[in-house]
Write a structure and sequence with these properties.
The protein has about 350 residues and is of the alpha/beta class. Helices cover about 45% and strands about 15% of the residues. The structure holds alpha-D-galactopyranose.
Length: about 350
Amino acid sequence: MSLKNVYEPYFKMGTSVSGRNMASLKAKRELKKHYSSITAENEMKPMFMLDWKANIENPEKYNTQPALNFDKARVYLDFAKESKIALRGHTLVWHNQTPVWFFKEDYRTDEDAPFADRDTMLARMESFIKGVLNFVQTEYPGVIYAWDVVNEAIEENEEDGWRKKSLWYKTVGEDFVLWAFRFARKYAAEGVSLFYNDYNTFDPFKREKICDLILKPLLKEKLLDGMGMQSHLILNDSDMREYEKSLHCFGSMGVEIQITELDIHATDPSENGMKQLAVMYDELFRILVKAKKEGLANITNVTFWGMKDDESWLTGFRKERSYPMLFGDNYELKEAYHMVVKVPDTL
Ligand code: GLA
């Protein structure tokens, strides 16, 4: 029995993977056993695919056509190809993990350097997206089945919803999202799904803004294939009714839905604590399978953000040890795993 086999009738099962996982035989065995999709936790983000040295040393040459470097990305692409596991591309246009110099005139690294103008940034964006997609589609055809084209453009603390601090928003303006998807559509191979991805998508304000500012305009131009709900949840805190509402709301827009970064922050490793975690995972997977079965959301993938407890980013982020996954530190199957694999049978 494995996650991917149990869920095969419904959706792909995935996990994020790190460089450490790629260097571990044990991790690779687990990956092949349980998952039909992987996402590189970091190395396919802009900061890793931009060639820092070349761009900074030779800004005239690369001003509107940034130099790229795929050495780090290849590790994931090679593994996915060899093991016939599908790969989610994550991510092309994001305010985070994209170097500040990328947004500056002449790729300058000094703090006072002015930002590049809109036309230059749109040219850099197009060239970056084109370069990345052409590379993966030429050297690894068919390996990447979905891209998070834009990550996290909406913010709950902004009155109108736009994340004003994003350097994409600052340099290009609010149509940066449309342009990113226009370029992605132009260069993406047929059959590759284009996703908008965001966190706290269960928040009612975010749900509304994502629908109005992002999904509707993209759908009008036929640029969007899917909505990514990151789903970083908190045990006994995240509101599952609102979560379900968002799932159905995005689902009703006729796009694919992928749960792209699932984890449930949980700090109590005792039997009781882990039982509570299992109950919340059980509730979540019931919501997902039901929505899929009843045609309320076309969920095509559920990806965990981390393979096992001790590798989760949450311990660092929340500054307290977290036990959020289905697998313990030594890949032992937790109560949450046992509950999750039982869900399809009971519905
Ligand atoms: C966001 C990003 C992910 C990852 C997590 C934290 O959700 O989309 O790529 O960086 O934050 O690990």
